[in-house]
Design a protein that fits this description.
The complex is a heterodimer. By secondary structure, chain A is mostly helical. Helix content of chain A is about 75%, strand content about 0%. A two-stranded antiparallel ribbon of chain A has the order 1-2. The chains are: A mainly alpha, B mainly alpha.
């Protein structure tokens, strides 16, 4: 049975470019709104933690950033895999567009973690399994991006960085389960799919709102970056320009 | 609400430096990313326009 949506229609850059352009404003507005509500909940509704005092409020940016760092890596690897399997240029472009944002969230997870570690553990950094594997994730993102820039031929760069991204995906479950598999200084999961949440409801709501906000932000950013990549790699499509502009250009000639 | 005053809010129970550094750096990173993309888009667009305008010269040469 046909689903009524012609997916093949959206798999070409010519179709993806304007579609992404139409979606970006919606995701941007959602990101700003969710961030506003999330921050309000986090700073004004969620109570003080009985153990950690106010320092725990870093959680509302630390956990969403850490989740995004892992999630975006998996999404990047999936696009890279589709690209390799189907030899599809738009898939490689999606993978390329995700890497910088993923790297940024990894950096933020590490930085906000240091800001949380100092007052709670007395150390900015410890070489425990969770922190070390997350640092390796940052190097993986850097590797994916550097590999691309170091290869001049675009198609070879696509494939090499895709293989690198795919191989590195094994680190994601290692990061996620590190707090269970090893005895880490980093605390275990406060939210688990099997046992539910150990946090106060308002704290959890604020954290989930911020996570949702980061998702919306990432989608908006990645869509606009993939448009830039398409424009740079395939030269900006003429339909980007308003008819008036094209006419002006034609007259100038 | 747990804050008696604005200064109490900014002090964050003595953890102000850690909490606000986290949030300010995050905000700077997100803001920088948006700005960088804005400029990248503008550059791509300018290049495309230059290409459209310069097309005649290219064929002449």
């Amino acid at each position: 049975m046909s689903t009524g949506i012609n997916w093949a229609k959206y798999s070409s850059p010519q179709a993806l470019y304007p579609l992404a352009g139409r979606l970006i404003p919606w995701f941007s507005v959602a990101a700003v709104a969710l961030m506003g509500v999330g921050l309000y909940m986090g700073f004004f509704v969620a109570p003080t933690d009985f153990q950690q005092g106010e320092s725990y409020r870093i959680i509302f940016v630390h956990v969403p950033a850490a989740w995004m760092s892992m999630f975006l890596y998996v999404v990047m690897a999936v696009w890279a895999g589709i690209g390799l399997g189907l030899n599809a240029r738009p898939s490689f472009m999606m993978a390329q567009a995700i890497a910088p944002t993923g790297a940024m969230f990894t950096f933020l997870a590490l930085l906000t973690g240091a800001m949380w570690g100092k007052p709670t553990w007395g150390a900015w950094w410890v070489w425990d399994a969770r922190l070390t594997s997350e640092l390796i994730l940052l190097f993986q993102y850097a590797g994916v991006m550097l590999l691309r820039t170091s290869i001049d031929d675009v198609r070879r760069a696509d494939r090499s960085s895709a293989v690198f991204a795919l191989v590195g995906v094994v680190n994601v479950p290692i990061i996620y389960f590190s707090v269970q598999w090893w005895n880490t200084l980093h605390q275990g999961a406060s939210v688990s799919m099997s046992t539910g949440s150990k946090m106060a409801a308002t704290m959890l709501t604020a954290m989930l709102l911020m996570t949702l906000a980061f998702w919306m932000y990432s989608i908006a950013i990645i869509l606009s970056r993939v448009r830039c990549i398409m424009a740079e790699r395939e030269s900006l499509p003429a339909w980007e320009e308003k008819p008036v502009t094209i006419q002006k250009i034609a007259e100038a000639r | 609400m747990q804050w008696g005053s604005a200064s109490e809010f900014f002090a964050m129970g003595g953890y102000g430096v850690y909490v606000w550094t986290s949030y300010v750096v995050t905000a700077l990173c997100l803001g920088w990313e948006v700005l960088a993309l804005w400029r990248r888009r503008a550059a791509a667009r300018a290049e495309h326009r230059a290409m459209l305008l310069g097309g005649a010269d290219e064929t002449a040469a």
